[in-house]
Write a structure and sequence with these properties.
This protein is α/β, with parallel strands linked by helices. It is about 30% helix and about 20% strand. It contains six helices and seven strands. Helix 1 (about 1-10) crosses helix 2.
Length: about 200
């Protein structure tokens, strides 16, 4: 399978021992996260989180109700029910690797939004064991394109290295397109998002 081979190949480009892995609520993102975690010998839970799902790139307003309804009619973009997803992952023997508790309400249907995602992570701290983390996040090319104004192809991803400080994250590296080896780095710590 091409996707599995790409996941293993892409894992070789990753540069950290990750403290936690996050992925979107679409099955294809979960599968990618699983195969990358396997290649990295990462044996902890993979957290399925909101604000990472695919977006309607054809829309002028990706957060409109119309746009959200449209992506739910496109087979590869639509969000399956939690019951369907859990049964599918169980049938292929990998359900026990995932933590779903953070997407068991309607936030799982929200389109990808990296700023909202990072703010949400700050408030909920899924998988946090410390406050200096290497986080691998598996999302979708459209979400990254929209956030970064940079061209992405499928199998793009990003590393997020963060330090939690008072009421915000400082990030020293936000690297895009790791799989295609186009790295975009900040050169200093930046107050990325304030939370209350």
């Amino acid at each position: 399978d091409i996707g599995v081979d790409e996941s293993y190949t892409n894992a070789k480009n990753l540069v950290y021992n990750y403290d936690v892995i996050y992925c979107s609520g679409l099955i294809r993102s979960m599968e990618t996260a699983y195969f990358i975690s396997k290649a990295l010998d990462y044996n902890k839970k993979i957290y399925v989180l909101p604000y990472l799902r695919e977006i309607d790139e054809s829309s002028d307003n990706i957060y409109s109700k119309e746009s959200i309804n449209r992506i739910n009619t496109i087979p590869n973009y639509s969000m399956k029910s939690l019951e369907y997803q859990k049964k599918y992952l169980n049938d292929i023997g990998i359900l026990n690797r995932f933590e779903f508790k953070y997407i068991e309400d309607n936030n799982r249907y929200e389109p990808g939004n990296i700023k909202n995602f990072i703010s949400w992570v700050y408030n909920n701290k899924p998988g946090f064991k410390s406050y200096n983390l290497h986080i691998l996040t598996i999302t979708h090319a459209g979400v990254l394109k929209y956030f970064s104004d940079t061209g992405f192809k499928n199998n793009s991803g990003f590393n997020l290295t963060v330090t939690l400080y008072k009421n915000h994250f400082l990030y020293s590296k936000l690297n895009y397109d790791i799989y295609n080896k186009k790295m975009y780095k900040s050169d200093k710590n930046i107050n990325f998002c304030n939370t209350t």
